[in-house]
């Protein structure tokens, strides 16, 4: 089983220890008589057999207790409180919406001013007056002339 160069190992085998069964001593059964003896009913099945058994009473649910009446004033106070909270929440949402709308309109106005201001700056600082003509820088021409002829 093992190769020749491998030393053999001792193998321990553990056997389980059986647990002795517990001896149960039962108390002698004492018959208990029911409070009342149910009536025995027998019926004849259509095929001629007779079936005998105890009649079982239908389980009756406990009677429902009447709920206490709720006063009209308590209902009106509760509904008024719910309505008041709804109105307060609606006003809070409306106020938040108006503030957000105002900030959005302010941002749009700022954006329009920046775009319009940029357009104005391009118009003022751009090439103006000489449409289609050639612009000559005299100083540069003089420097070039002196450079070439100097």
Q: What's the end-to-end separation, in Å?
A: 110 Å
Number of strands: 2
Largest sheet: 2 strands, antiparallel
Q: Helix and strand succession?
A: EEHH
Mean pLDDT: 77
Helix content: 40-55%
* Strand coverage percent: 5-15%
Largest sheet, order of strands side by side?
Answer: 1-2
* 3D shape: flat
Treating each run of at least 4 consecutive H or I residues as one helix, how many helices?
Answer: 2
- Flag low-confidence runs: none
Structural class based on helices, strands and sheet pairing: mainly alpha
Radius of gyration: 54 Å
Molecular structure report:
With 150 residues, the protein is mainly α. It has helices at residues 72-125, 138-149, and strands at residues 40-44, 50-54. The protein has two helices and two strands. Strand 1 (40-44) and strand 2 form a beta hairpin. The longest helix has 54 residues, at 72-125. The model has no long low-confidence stretch (mean pLDDT 77).
